[in-house]
């Protein structure tokens, strides 16, 4: 059976999380540790993050029915699950019209021993790792117990294979994390290391920002449509936030 791309693919970063807020506060104060008690997996949305998710859900709900998502693939992390749930609630899709699936391959990049450390904390506690990361670069650097961008890309390749096998011709919404959005762009747009890191340096992926692709029959490929689209948030009066997730990845 010939594999087929979805007709529409949306990739969305979760709404602002309590971890994003705590990280910003810790970095601004020059602290070494991000003051949050939950595991990264269990970090919930902030109040603003919930507002952002509802605003995006209203936008999806206003699309013509034949343009709305049919399948939602979601990271199992709490902040992504809450985002997907609020999008579906606010969109008010007809019962049974959308299938929600959780997939651990869409989880956040794992930070290993650098988890919960700020940039200041990494430099103070693990100066050799900080130097190694600067030398190797974030694309290939793998912290002990964690992942590099290449590791994330490897698991996302199997996600795309599954999507073409099981959801060809459908409208698919993915809800994940900042690195997931960028690594999916790397795969779909056939970028190289320099190109995706240039995109990353331009700015963080907005919370509840939408990057989307439409299937082009002539090229038999997905073609970029929207990139970090935040108009639904602005239209709803929800502030746009761009806090990074990767504590070990300061912009050069």
Describe this structure in words.
The protein has 252 residues and is α/β, with parallel strands linked by helices. It has a single domain (8-235), classed as Phosphoglycerate mutase-like (Rossmann fold), CATH 3.40.50.1240. It has helices at residues 18-29, 47-62, 78-91, 119-125, 127-136, 149-166, 178-188, 193-202, 231-235; strands at 8-13, 71-74, 99-102, 171-176, 210-216, 221-224. It has a 6-stranded mixed β-sheet with strand order 3-2-4-1-5-6. It is globular and about 55 Å long.
Structural topology:
Elements: E1 8-13, H1 18-29, H2 47-62, E2 71-74, H3 78-91, E3 99-102, H4 119-125, H5 127-136, H6 149-166, E4 171-176, H7 178-188, H8 193-202, E5 210-216, E6 221-224, H9 231-235
Parallel strand pairs: 1-4, 2-3, 2-4
Antiparallel strand pairs: 1-5, 5-6
Helix pairs in contact: 2-3, 4-5, 6-7, 7-8
Highlighted features:
9 helices, Rossmann fold, six-stranded mixed beta sheet, alpha/beta, 252 residues, 41% helix, 6 strands
Task: Note the quaternary state here.
Answer: single chain
Assigned CATH class: Alpha Beta
Rounded average pLDDT: 93
What's the total helix number? Answer: 9
State the CATH topology: Rossmann fold
Strands of the widest sheet, in order across it, are 3-2-4-1-5-6
Strand content: 5-15%
Give the radius of gyration.
Answer: 18 Å
Largest sheet: 6 strands, mixed
Q: Can you tell me the CATH architecture?
A: 3-Layer(aba) Sandwich
CATH superfamily (homologous) name: Phosphoglycerate mutase-like
Shape, please?
A: globular
Helix content: 40-55%
> Which secondary-structure class do the elements indicate?
alpha/beta
Weakly predicted, low-confidence segments: 247-252
Q: Could you state the order of secondary-structure elements as H and E?
A: EHHEHEHHHEHHEEH
Cα end-to-end separation? 46 Å
Number of domains: 1
What's the total count of β strands?
6
